[in-house]
């Protein structure tokens, strides 16, 4: 553990440490951070997401970003990312803790955690107070200026520009430069795509994987008939916004969570309870019982009877989620921060939903399970289905920015949203 923190993107602070384990017993996020740096002997990276930094701001400093102007929230996040990694006592902390750890002096380590907790919290509090004194008048002036522009608006309809871009899911997350890149002829598009280097702290829960976008679950009979198919078909909307211009608000939208019929063919009726019993029998004798249990949970949300070969659609939350995607150009960061013209961000709105199609199951023992990851064009089946599926997601899909509910403005990591079926209570 060398105590060095590195901000690798706008969404994480990366701490070079010798752990990846988090102590959930402590209520203080900073104490959790300290413990996570010393509880493992292998050299690892601890990644703090925006959601975790927001948790520190909330619990340690009573700063609730959801109640602040978005620009003020961005300032607090930037301050925390910078000064968490620049705390002058990291080297001293590193030396003392490694010495105590080698001697297995756990009680003394706890005392160091408490003393350094006070020091780091005081250090961060000082920086946050300075930021608050500078930020509030600047933000108020910004709001007043926007309000004046709205009053002077002539009523001329704004032109709408539709931009069509082909990009992979991971490329889209860092496609837009936050400011025109002077080294690349002032383009706003990032021509390079680098795979993330952070180490994922926890593995994906199976429910998160099965609720990920582009993932489909298919049960195929021995006669090659698809007897169950569930496809995550989240509805996405992208708008390129410049936050230096007038305040952009995502239009409010209410999502009806009732089951909707997407297509229908008149045929026999399926009793859902009978179908669940057959799936349950298969689950009891299969290595893939976690997926079959997920399917049972999914089926229980359907009406008690449905026509066979009906395609059903369901939104999983009352409200869409929104997030802002962009790429910081570190070499130009100083000049960008002084710019008064550009703050380009790709606004991504998701209305989480899935489609499901079911036909009668004649022989519950003769089922073949297949999982497809459409964004990666990969299919998983066979004896190692779950192992291979989790390994793929842990390696390729962890670097996703957080989402915010457009109704309550609470922030969630994508893994937690997917694990909870993209649903939360406002």
TrEMBL record:
Biased composition (Polar residues) is annotated at: 1-16
Top-rank lineage group of the source organism: Eukaryota
Q: Where is this region: Disordered?
A: 1-25
What's the name of the protein? Answer: C2H2-type domain-containing protein
């Amino acid at each position: 553990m060398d105590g060095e923190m590195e901000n690798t993107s706008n969404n994480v602070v990366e701490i070079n440490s010798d752990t990846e384990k988090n102590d959930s017993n402590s209520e203080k996020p900073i104490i959790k951070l300290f413990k996570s740096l010393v509880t493992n002997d292998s050299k690892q990276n601890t990644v703090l997401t925006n959601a975790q930094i927001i948790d520190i701001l909330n619990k340690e400093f009573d700063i609730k970003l959801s109640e602040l102007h978005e620009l003020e929230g961005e300032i607090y996040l930037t301050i925390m990312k910078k000064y968490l990694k620049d705390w002058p006592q990291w080297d001293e902390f590193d030396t003392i803790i490694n010495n105590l750890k080698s001697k297995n002096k756990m009680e003394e380590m706890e005392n160091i955690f408490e003393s350094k907790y006070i020091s780091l919290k005081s250090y961060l509090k000082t920086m946050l107070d300075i930021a608050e004194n500078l930020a509030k008048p600047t933000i108020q002036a910004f709001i007043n200026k926007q309000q004046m522009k709205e009053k002077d608006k002539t009523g001329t309809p704004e032109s709408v520009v539709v931009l069509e871009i082909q990009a992979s899911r991971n490329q889209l997350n860092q496609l837009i430069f936050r400011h025109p890149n002077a080294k690349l002829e002032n383009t706003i598009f990032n021509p390079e795509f680098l795979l993330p280097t952070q180490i994922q702290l926890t593995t994906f829960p199976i429910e998160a994987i099965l609720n990920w976008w582009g993932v489909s679950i298919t049960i195929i009979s021995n006669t090659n008939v698809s007897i169950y198919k569930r496809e995550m078909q989240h509805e996405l909307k992208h708008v390129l916004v410049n936050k230096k211009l007038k305040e952009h608000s995502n239009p409010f939208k209410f999502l009806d969570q009732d089951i909707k019929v997407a297509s229908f063919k008149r045929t026999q009726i399926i009793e859902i309870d009978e179908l669940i019993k057959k799936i349950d029998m298969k689950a009891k004798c299969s290595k893939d019982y976690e997926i079959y249990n997920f399917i049972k949970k999914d089926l229980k949300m359907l009406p008690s009877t449905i026509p066979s070969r009906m395609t059903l659609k369901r939104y999983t939350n009352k409200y869409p989620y929104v997030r802002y995607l962009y790429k910081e150009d570190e070499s130009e960061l100083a000049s960008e921060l002084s710019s008064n013209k550009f703050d380009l961000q790709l606004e991504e709105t998701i209305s989480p939903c899935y489609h499901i199609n079911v036909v009668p199951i004649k022989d519950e023992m003769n089922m073949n399970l297949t999982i497809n990851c459409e964004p990666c064009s990969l299919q998983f089946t066979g004896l190692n289905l779950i192992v291979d599926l989790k390994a793929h997601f842990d390696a390729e899909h962890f670097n996703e920015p957080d989402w915010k509910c457009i109704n309550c403005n609470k922030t969630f990591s994508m893994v937690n949203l997917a694990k909870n079926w993209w649903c939360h209570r406002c």
